[in-house]
Amino acid sequence: MLSVREAIETLLGQSACCVEPESIPLPEAAGRVLAADLRAPIDVPPADNSAMDGYALRHADWPGPGGRLGLSQRITAGSAPGRLEDGTAARIFTGASIPPGADTVVMQERCEAADGAVRILELPARGANIRPRGQDVRAGQAVLAAGRRLRPQDVGLIASLGLDSVAAFRRLRVAVLSTGDELVEPGQPAGPGQIYNSNRFTMHAQLAAWGFDVVDLGVARDRPGAVRELLLRGAERADVVLTSGGVSVGEEDHVRDTVAELGRIDLWRIAVKPGKPFAFGAVGDTPFIGLPGNPVSVFVTLLVIARPFLFACQGRDDLAPTPLRAPARFRRKASSREDYLRVRASEDGLELYDNQSSGALFSTGWADGLARQPADVAIEEGDPVAYLPWPLFD
After folding, report:
1. For residue 221, how many other CB atoms are within 10 A of its CB?
2. The pLDDT of residue 291 is above 90
3. What mean pLDDT is predicted for residues 273-302?
4. 155 has pLDDT over 80
5. H or E element: which one contains 220?
6. Pairing of strands 68-75, 88-92
């Protein structure tokens, strides 16, 4: 069995961005992946402006305590000021452009205005309360790098540059297929020996949360012909095919053998817990990832092993989350496989869910992340362990 690190390296060694760039209107850009480095076409702000309501003046013109300056103009945000007359001040408002000739803004709370003049009660340092041109971003400055998944604040930054669209990669299309005669869809009555199909919805929801387009192939029953038909359909319609179940060694596990017939299997079985029966290869020329069948195994291997590959195919640059460190509030015997434990963080450290079965899906909702236990390493209470809270997998 390959280690988790070796498995991820194998997948990434065969990954490449497989989606083309397209122009995206800015209101639709959040969550999309930037396809090219973005440089600022303008200075932000485009001119010196006032950081607050007050009075703009030339610092050297201050007549001293008790002296007054006549008001020569009133400048609101969005208006174009004239040059400041010598020996005068200008009433100015937050965001308004600084008039040529002024070099300081005094906040209104430090002033007294009456009869067309203003008395400066407390003069700040020269240049106070002015946001200079280009203070935020300079024209030509590298602003955002290709491969970044755009967050709301990134979209706002792009808008501040005057751009109404951005080059982003097309959304990765991932075909999702569940397998098994025992599966019944939610909302339908479950007969003897049947269980509700949670894997289909876990995969669909997680892929959608990552910003991918999901091609739902439904459920393949445990017959080679049915598996073959749906795998071929997925390979034709999507960039990556993702399945759950059918990749182990049982007589009714047909996915792995069918993929090998249609393309190839490059990797099978990983020293990870939960999730040992994990397969990677291709259906024809379309990359294939076969997740295990148990619901927690599906969730964990999708996050830990499949995610870096899928992100690379989408063109993202944040492939590997950096774990935090937190003390364990539990003891755990060593295992021959790398173990991903469902835990919840508190002020005292990480609490372990009492049922770490690969079928205990409730544990993933109870937990707020995973603790990574390396192979052949025991955990004693108080030991610092690698902690991966769910947001690290966004």
Report:
1. 15
2. yes
3. 95
4. yes
5. strand 213-220
6. parallel
Chain segment 205-215, per-residue pLDDT in tens: 999 999 999 99
Helix (H) or strand (E) holding 245: none
Nearest CA to 161 out of 321, 264, 41, 244 is that of 41
pLDDT above 80: residue 248:
no
What value, to the nearest 5°, has the Cα angle with vertex 299 and ends 293 and 303? Answer: 130
Please confirm whether the linkage preceding 41 is cis (ω < 30° from 0). Answer: no
Per DSSP, helices labelled H in the chain are: 4-13, 152-160, 199-209, 224-237, 255-262, 295-301, 307-314, 362-366
Tell me how far apart the terminal alpha carbons of the chain are, to the nearest angstrom: 28
Length of the chain: 394
Q: Which two tokens stand for residue 275?
A: 């999730």
- Which of the 8 DSSP states describes residue 135? S
Rounded to an integer, the average pLDDT of 56-77 is 94
Region label for 368, one of left (φ > 0), alpha (ψ between -120 and 50) or beta (otherwise): alpha
Nearest to 382 by CA among 322, 332, 324: 332
What separation in angstroms does the CA of 231 have from each of 68, 216, 227? 83, 11, 6
What structural domains and CATH numbers belong to the chain?
4-18+171-314 (3.40.980.10), 21-44+136-169 (3.90.105.10), 49-131 (2.170.190.11), 324-393 (2.40.340.10)
Q: Residue 100, preceding bond cis, omega within 30 degrees?
A: no
Residue pair 350/340 in contact by the 8 Å Cβ criterion: no
